[in-house]
Amino acid sequence: MSEAEHKMGRFKNKILRLQEKLQDRVEDLTDQVQNKIEKSKLSKFVSHLSEDRSSIEDVDRDSIGKSSIDSKYSQSDSIPSVIIDEPSVNADPKDICKDFLTVEKHGFLYRRCRSATNLALDDSSFHSSSESCFSCLSSSDERTTEIRPRAGSLPGQNLDIAFAINTCTDIIEKIGNRFPRLKTRGDRIHRYLLKNTRLSDVNKRLKAQIWSSVVTIVLVEAKNLPAMDLDTRSSDPYCKFRLGNEKYKSKVVWKSLHPSWLEQFDLHLYDDQEQILEVTVWDKDKQTKDDFLGRCTIDLSKLEREKTHNIWKDLEDGNGQIFLLLTISGTTQSETITDLATYRENPRDILNVEKRYAWYRLNEQSSGVGWLCVKVYGAKGLAAADLGGKSDPFCVLELGNARLQTHTEYKTLTPNWMKIFTFTVKDISSILDITVYDEDHDHKVEFLGKLALPLLNIRNGEKRWFALKDKKMRARAKGNYPQILLEMSVIWNPLKAAIRVVNPKEPKYMHQEAKFKRQLFIRNVVRLKAIIMWFIEIGKILQDCFEWESRICSFIGLLAWLAFCYYYQMWMVPFFLLIFFSRNWLIYRLTGGNPLLAPVDDDDLLAEEDDEEEVDKEEKKSLKERLQAIQEVTQTVQNAIGYVASLGEAVKNLTNFTVPYLSYIAIIMLFAAMLVLYVIPLRYLLMAWGINKFTRKILRPHTIPNNEVLDLLSRVPDDETLLDIRELKPHAPSERKDARKKHKSS
Question: Disordered: where is this region (predicted)?
């Protein structure tokens, strides 16, 4: 039932996701329709004034002809941007309409002129006022003859957009006072202008993606936090992050002064905001207000881009430290060091890197054993994650705890990221994980494909396409044969890498523990069974030699065992292991390596999918059959674990005299073994043991093979047996009832 509920939950999540996408699409369509309606209404409003426009144009031609401005201002097809007086309240409606249409046509802005003349109500006075304004412009106010941009245009040209909109709305209000029928239409235009102005910034941030970089934060742990709960002498800490207007709150770690969160999240960095990351630590209280534990700030402007930083910060206004992994990547600017379009490879830089990681430089203070360069060109054939048949893909590269990513390419299935990234290699045996995601609204992601590349398998300077896999990393990802175009180079110090390999491996902080799944459990059991069967096969070969199934093999085995025991030296153990490695090396050179690493084609994938379908068909059994299959597997594992536990408890009980008789026998056997090893060399004892094993079938054909030590331990009871044989104290009936009552009350 739990699996069915899990499938239903996933189905519900897909439905909710689809509903959100449909709702966003409907909202976009509604906004477009509303914009078209408002534009049509505005055009109708202007059409009512078409007759006045023709007369006004005639007046404009006459006024311009009478003006004293030179010929470059008198051209009718390119009227310059001038500043005229704001109309008064008592102005004529025709003049107001004329000015409004002039603003709409040529982008005029109303401002008080230096002339004291106001707009006249008749045509003659209008000419004089215009002349005064133009003369003022030509004499005292030295301005360029460029046409001023309209209200609502892009910033950067010194225009006050709010002032322009207010001017237009004032004109509309005055027209509405003169024409009451058009007042409602003017109000609608006013609301339309205010709405577009109010939503412009929001649309830019949410739909046009103007963030400059992505700040990826891994909240690892904290140490030495103060205890705020006096009863338990601990705290229930959680963290809050703030970067500009974005916030994030971590989960609560209950009753710990050294919490470990292991949470990863993204915040977005904008060019117009302060680059200060605020981190506060709080203690969760269920009944009262949360207690403050400390805070710290990180200046992101001082951190190097496209690099993962390990940051320990002391908490201010409190005690303790907090550990973060912070990466600033995914930049949208084209003039950055990660842009391939402007990147020019310098051979001198490559030589410096090769010198830094030369094999004889072991005392260098560099943090890693090598240098990795990855050029991400683009991808093709990606799956369509949006309803419009497109995706918004971006690529994430992970090497150990280092994590970098490209920017997002919107509405495409063939993105061209054109980025270059560099990593410091701390372990040459690491695997580079490359994942392609689709960015949804609210910066959520959807999986598109993944690729895992061992660093030792990288061919320097080779530019080629790599196929993307699905989440299980067993089959091809969804889409039209999705691929990613990469070029990689790795330079490393072999001696430093060898020293690093035999040291403890750096833990990956964001490694997710796999939850219990029946398929995964059965797969792990099958893997363990294959290894155990390998040892069982070797044991069967030895057993056949002992049983003389093949006389030639048994005789040769006996002679080899006697020669080994007689001439045995300690150096022979690694020598025989070298022989084993030499055999496998010859197989590797002849066959090309492990068959699991050989590339597979679609036919092999189809065959594997057919096998998986058969497995799925087997899984589509009745509940009783599935429970029986689970019971068989768990019973095998249960018995194996129980046997190992019983063996360990038997050794413990044998040494602590749980059964004194068996302990005394073990002591006598140890004394005898000590005397025999003191008198007889070990090699002769091994030879005698081998002769006994090889000749048992000939001399004593009906005896059962045994191991004396295991036979002795099988007689020692384990803890479960001790609990079974433990006696109960006899009580009188009245005392027994009182004991039961006390037990129930307790």
Answer: 727-746
